[in-house]
Specification:
Blueprint: E1 4-7, E2 10-23, H1 62-74, E3 82-83, E4 86-89, E5 99-102, E6 112-117, E7 123-135, E8 139-145, E9 148-152, E10 159-165, H2 172-188, E11 201-210, E12 220-225, H3 228-247, E13 255-260, E14 265-271, E15 281-282, E16 289-290, H4 293-301, H5 307-318, H6 322-329, H7 332-342, H8 347-365, H9 376-387, H10 393-406, H11 410-416, H12 425-438, H13 440-447, H14 454-464, H15 471-482
Parallel strand pairs: 12-13
Antiparallel strand pairs: 1-2, 2-10, 2-11, 3-16, 4-5, 4-15, 6-7, 7-10, 8-9, 11-12, 13-14
Helix pairs in contact: 2-3, 5-6, 7-8, 7-9, 9-10, 12-14, 12-15, 14-15
This protein binds adenosine-5'-diphosphate (ADP) and magnesium ion (MG).
Length: about 475
């Protein structure tokens, strides 16, 4: 995917900025003690404040504040020691308070940076504008009865972090890499589970186009896109749509649009003229939030190793390519598995086995690494048997398949199936002699200079030994004998 959209009248460039809503990992809501567990019966996790009962007062959940600070630190961002909660006023049936408590002019986290990893191994820094805390609304359900709307308030009041990027993103691929990297970071520090299917992470995608060298064009915002793939497709569609309008002599209306994943297109939801005037003002029930710098410093000191640092370490200590390292560190469970396999072994070989064979097998079974039938120590054991020449790489793949099916160790399988590589030169010589005796014509051709035939002889000997002959020994013995 290139950064340029080729229009009829020349090239255009995309400009993209993302607003990501990430649900905070916390047992209780942002301003009430009600549970946040996913999948409960509707309206069973609603406190009086979530239901908007008169006279109820919000009480800030300290853990949610800590989660936001932790996230800000992981985004290399400014932590604002004083921030303010504002009321964002609008009417909607699933918002019983009549306003959302959010942060507007003074968010808890200011400017930061996320480094994204691109498939060619390069990286790019994307600016973070801000992160603010806000409460989620409830959910309106329109498809239970044709004549009524149902409202579920279980989500109402759940803490969200809204993470806003600068318009630094230029391609659908970069946008996808950005969402993946954010998800990875949030999961490393356990502040959001990143589960896009359950709505724990949702994206608003802002897209505009311009001719190279021009200033920013008018943007459209595509609301609530819920997968990396849809983010990328929505951008592609939207950029092409805007280019079409501009080339036809039209102008872009700033509007909010929806992505229809069935049709793969965006369509209007509301225009700027219909946009809400939220009449933000500081919530009189909540004092400004003041953070103790020593507390922030303690959170910073307790952060785990983050993906970028781990990636660098994998490149340095295990000799991996930057892109392979970025793939391995994206999920902390994968990174830990790889480290166990690679420790004291050939890092590149370990990365190959984990990324190609193991991930391939897990993919087929729909499992993640935490439920892998092959444990990290066992995979390391298999690699040891290749390194000490007990088995060849080809036989190792057979052994690995059995390990995946049975969960057994490599050594047990090698012994039971008699897969040890034949390094006994006497035995190999005997096989070589047989093949040579049976193929005098081909021997003559080789001796007459048709060197390429040697591969055929190697193949015959390997076949005769069910692939167990040590390939180096076979080659050596063949060379000697074929010289005549
Ligand atoms: P609002 O508050 O109306 O949503 P913001 O200025 O906060 O507007 O911007 C929201 C998002 O839109 C940010 O992620 C920002 O990077 C992005 N954005 C701003 N201008 C443009 C533009 N011209 N093209 C694409 N994205 C943009
Ligand atoms: Mg917006």
């Amino acid at each position: 995917m290139s950064a340029i959209v080729e229009g009829r009248t020349g090239p255009f460039e995309m400009v993209i900025g993302l607003e990501v809503h990430a649900q905070v990992i916390s047992k209780a809501k942002l301003f009430s003690g009600a549970s946040t567990a996913f999948g409960a019966e509707p309206n069973t996790q609603v406190s009086f404040i979530d239901a908007g009962m008169p006279g109820m007062l919000p009480v800030i959940n300290g853990l949610c504040v800590e989660q936001a600070v932790k996230t800000g630190l992981a985004l290399n961002a400014q932590i604002n020691l004083v921030s303010v909660f504002d009321r964002k006023n609008y009417f909607y049936p699933d918002l019983p308070l009549g306003y959302q408590i959010s942060q507007f002019t003074k968010p808890i986290v200011g400017k930061g940076i996320v480094t994204i990893d691109l498939p060619d191994g390069s990286t790019k820094d994307i600016g973070i504008t801000r992160l603010h805390l806000e409460m989620d609304a409830g959910k309106s359900i329109h498809d239970i009865r044709p004549d009524a709307t149902h409202v579920d308030l279980n989500r109402a009041g759940v803490a969200l972090m809204e993470i806003v990027s600068e318009p630094d993103i230029r391609t659908p691929e970069e946008a996808g890499a950005y969402v993946k990297k954010l998800r990875s970071l949030l999961r490393y520090i356990d502040t959001c589970d990143g589960n896009m299917d359950e709505g724990s992470m949702r994206c608003d995608v802002n897209v505009s186009v311009r001719r190279p060298g021009e200033g920013f064009g008018t943007r459209c915002e595509i609301k609530n896109v819920n997968s990396v793939r849809f983010v990328m497709r929505a951008i592609e569609y939207e950029a092409a749509r805007q280019v079409g309008i501009i080339e036809a002599g039209g102008t872009i209306d700033q509007e909010t649009r929806l992505f229809d994943s069935q049709k793969g297109e965006t369509r209007p939801m509301r225009s700027k003229e219909e946009a809400h005037d939220y009449r933000y003002f500081p919530d009189p029930d909540l004092l400004p939030l003041r953070l103790d710098p020593a507390w922030v410093a303690r959170i910073k000191a307790a952060l785990p190793e983050l993906p970028d640092a781990r990636k660098e370490r994998f490149v340095r200590d295990f000799g991996l390519s930057p892109y392979d390292a970025s793939v391995l560190v994206a999920e902390k469970e994968n990174a830990a598995f790889f480290e166990t396999v690679a420790k004291g072994r050939d890092g590149k070989m370990a990365a190959n086995w984990v990324m190609t064979e193991l991930f391939g097998a897990l993919n087929k079974k729909g499992l993640d690494v935490t439920r892998s039938p092959v444990k990290a120590e066992a995979l390391g054991g298999l690699i040891d048997r290749i390194k000490d020449n007990t088995i060849s790489g080809r036989i190792a793949k057979e052994v690995f398949e059995i390990m995946v099916e049975t969960g057994r160790d490599a050594d047990a399988i090698i012994e039971e199936k008699g897969l040890r590589q034949v390094t006994d030169t006497g035995a190999i010589e005997a096989e070589v002699d047989k093949v040579i005796a049976a193929n005098a014509d081909k021997v003559a051709q080789i001796r007459a200079g048709k060197e390429a035939l040697k591969g055929w002889f190697v193949g015959q000997v390997m076949k005769a030994t069910q692939g167990k002959a040590n390939p180096a020994a076979v080659n050596q013995i063949l060379d000697k004998k074929l010289k005549g």
